[in-house]
């Protein structure tokens, strides 16, 4: 069975050496008391144990068994209940939660490392609490003080769980079409009625209560996405003292049978006049839900990195052990019947692709998390700058982490040859599990539209220039301390140039943004990773003498990234500049 | 449940209009009596019925149920036995078989259309007879007249089935490591002992007998791949009159649990002194097996096209029905709550990518099949030219069809959003089923090494120039009758230039071929498809006035291919020219 060992050394490298988290934490009052390098490292060590020893061993068995539905009751696979009980004892659900309500208040920069470990170890298990974390964020930002006092501590403790109920059978990417109704009651609560699908953890046997965040329409709601309100709908009604009362009028009608994440219960939920409480203002539910969505989008992005890391660890181990053929240019292990396949350049190509994308992704997730921390804890210009970067980079993180995550998992399966297709080796499960991450929390196509339409074109490229300006400032340092500076500069210039072209063309061509958004997001992603690899390489070059094996490997991987992966932007650039016309010529009925 | 309708109009377009099969058939004596346009169309019509009505309805249920193993006995999913009986009544297994032994002698150009339909309808079912067809080819080419008389008619009829037993647990890509032994017996037969894995259809309940083609070592065999012989090992021994005798000493130890093709029994086979018969010469079994392998490689390539076509048909239907959002630039269906998603350029991008790759692949598979027919039925220079093209293009067909097949199936799943991840819609099964095609019959990495190492570098580019020379001859026609001629010319020049660079560099760098083979194969594949699309576009332009809807769609798809997909060669070119160094820098233990 595959094992998982958290890449602690690499995580510390990114956190402490590349992004100097300790300096940031020390200067932000809310964090200075909470965390320092030593605390962070202790948490990471403990997190590595929990994910590697408690959760990873349940990943394969959970996939084989799946979640069960029986007359509305959902049970998780063998071992999940016990593991969940142990897991929440560690306080992990509230790791980055608001300390005023029982959270631990840890920075997002640290939390993303833990999230990556979780997804590497057991994506299905992770989803149960990932939704809770997002639910807490939405409540913390938009709920009344009374509701926060009542619910947040029990969510942070993991005693109760949260869900997000958005999608309906006819309303997915287009939430404006949703029909679930909310009727006001005399006591200030609402009666929620309607059907929701694809509800992760909508029902389960891990927690005593489940709190559903439900999007629904008030009777006087305007049509479309501006008439949607957000409600908190608990499975069991809750007394003011926190005691559980009557079962609410909602139920799980069935579970979906899926390609992967089979141990995660994906529920059809029916609300039949269930009691709900308005969160935030009427008709502004979509905006409130986006507090949660943006958090979830980064988290789901990290699922891509986590699955890729797990696949990489397995593929690396197999490539060192499996003996087939001889290395070109002479036997590497002449005493054996054949060389380990890691000796074959084509196998190294697959492993290096995984390694460069995963480590680039880890750095970028940490960078985005740093901006989230700055947006939350810093002031004025620094805060506004960070908020702009978060808005700009979140769709890239979600889509690019998961697209490259699938690519990495496919490579990791391919390294195993035929064994990669066999269930017992675990590599095919990672492909199946990671695939959903390109779809849920807004498909990657939707992310790309958000990026190019709302985050670049709509503000005339301001947010983009905030990001490219930062890269240019980095490049202003002496070239000797900036390996790969020329290649990074060329890549940034390419991003700026194609963005300028798009800003100009989009004025005349209403279809352009939709037509090239995915290609643009990918180009942006490769440039962002180039920035990450240049920063990692700069640190590695300066520290090389201290630990040649570790820092030399970083530089070799950076070299691979710049010469073998970054050139993908050449094609993307050409495809973007081909514009929208080639997509529009074919009549709908001629497909 | 998804339906499948064979794309007959598109197949006839490729066969009759683009490649003028009737003219070729008329001038080759062996085919002139056998087939003409009318016969071919009648066969295609019938094939469409068999695949659409008999096999496609068993695809989902077969996946859900899977093949079963019970104490050495393997049963196929419900409905497979009955469908197989009906299927072989039609004579389909021997469609392209040698008429001297009961085959129908149809050209490969026609057979590949049928193979595509089979894989679209039900990949698992198809594999049972696909291996039989390949087995027949190997026997026809290398077995004694006595064995051919005894076995071939019952294989062509589908009464018996064939397998290929190559892989052992420690010997996959490197067959030189295999250990299965063959001891000569006094009666001229051999006792075969050893274990084989990943044997498709190694045991099943569809046919009365199963004939295993087994690679094994004679006692005096040299080490490595030059000491391997090929044996025919029947499940039941066969009397000279064809009656079945005693059960042979071989058994199925278990079935593999796989990511997909679950209705195909993938067997662990144990040979315990089983009686076998030498096929071809001692120690030359690998060459004999390659007769079968090359055939299978094209067939498995076509699995990529077939699955992609099925995924495309489903995605197209869904994209026309599913209402979400509004088209940029104004509502397309203002009377409805939202526009069908086919109106969104990003959805059109995914559909057009599938369409352009699948139709390009269909044309290329037909082109390679034409070369196979010429290699089999023509003479002298024409035959040698065709043989060289078959050798050059087979690895491209296998790897590029399946890599782009996976890409297409992923797009087809993505078009469905969340529903694409749910089993009942069938799109996720196509992703799982097509994935194996990149792995078996020689991984796509192995195909790439075969292409660049043996088929390009080893002959100094001669075969390559035979192919590019043909494209240049095509381009010599007046430009007005050759739409996209400039883009095709630039692409061919790119292929020639990077090939020349590789031929030169490979002399000094022994790792280069292994390092860039996959990128080179992909670049070659896009250029080959560009040639196909230019040929299709030339025909479509000349015929446009006859049927604007059909030929206009071909031209629009060609336009998409040249502007949105072909530019992928820019990145591949840069990555190839980055050479082997970036892959070799990292020490094995630093991955």
UniProtKB/TrEMBL annotation, chains A, B:
<dbReference type="InterPro" id="IPR036250">
    <property type="entry name" value="AcylCo_DH-like_C"/>
</dbReference>
<dbReference type="InterPro" id="IPR006091">
    <property type="entry name" value="Acyl-CoA_Oxase/DH_mid-dom"/>
</dbReference>
<keyword id="KW-0274">FAD</keyword>
<protein>
    <recommendedName>
        <fullName>3-methylmercaptopropionyl-CoA dehydrogenase</fullName>
        <ecNumber>1.3.99.41</ecNumber>
    </recommendedName>
</protein>
<dbReference type="GO" id="GO:0050660">
    <property type="term" value="F:flavin adenine dinucleotide binding"/>
</dbReference>
<dbReference type="InterPro" id="IPR046373">
    <property type="entry name" value="Acyl-CoA_Oxase/DH_mid-dom_sf"/>
</dbReference>
<dbReference type="InterPro" id="IPR037069">
    <property type="entry name" value="AcylCoA_DH/ox_N_sf"/>
</dbReference>
<feature type="domain" description="Acetyl-CoA dehydrogenase-like C-terminal">
    <location>
        <begin position="467"/>
        <end position="586"/>
    </location>
</feature>
<feature type="domain" description="Acyl-CoA oxidase/dehydrogenase middle">
    <location>
        <begin position="164"/>
        <end position="272"/>
    </location>
</feature>
<dbReference type="Pfam" id="PF12806">
    <property type="entry name" value="Acyl-CoA_dh_C"/>
</dbReference>
<feature type="domain" description="Acyl-CoA dehydrogenase/oxidase C-terminal">
    <location>
        <begin position="284"/>
        <end position="450"/>
    </location>
</feature>
<keyword id="KW-0285">Flavoprotein</keyword>
<dbReference type="Pfam" id="PF02771">
    <property type="entry name" value="Acyl-CoA_dh_N"/>
</dbReference>
<keyword id="KW-0560">Oxidoreductase</keyword>
<dbReference type="Pfam" id="PF00441">
    <property type="entry name" value="Acyl-CoA_dh_1"/>
</dbReference>
<comment type="function">
    <text>Involved in the assimilation of dimethylsulphoniopropionate (DMSP), an important compound in the fixation of carbon in marine phytoplankton, by mediating the conversion of 3-(methylthio)propanoyl-CoA (MMPA-CoA) to 3-(methylthio)acryloyl-CoA (MTA-CoA).</text>
</comment>
<dbReference type="InterPro" id="IPR009100">
    <property type="entry name" value="AcylCoA_DH/oxidase_NM_dom_sf"/>
</dbReference>
<comment type="similarity">
    <text>Belongs to the acyl-CoA dehydrogenase family.</text>
</comment>
<dbReference type="GO" id="GO:0016627">
    <property type="term" value="F:oxidoreductase activity, acting on the CH-CH group of donors"/>
</dbReference>
<dbReference type="Pfam" id="PF02770">
    <property type="entry name" value="Acyl-CoA_dh_M"/>
</dbReference>
<dbReference type="InterPro" id="IPR013786">
    <property type="entry name" value="AcylCoA_DH/ox_N"/>
</dbReference>
<feature type="domain" description="Acyl-CoA dehydrogenase/oxidase N-terminal">
    <location>
        <begin position="37"/>
        <end position="159"/>
    </location>
</feature>
<dbReference type="InterPro" id="IPR009075">
    <property type="entry name" value="AcylCo_DH/oxidase_C"/>
</dbReference>
<dbReference type="InterPro" id="IPR025878">
    <property type="entry name" value="Acyl-CoA_dh-like_C_dom"/>
</dbReference>
<dbReference type="InterPro" id="IPR052166">
    <property type="entry name" value="Diverse_Acyl-CoA_DH"/>
</dbReference>
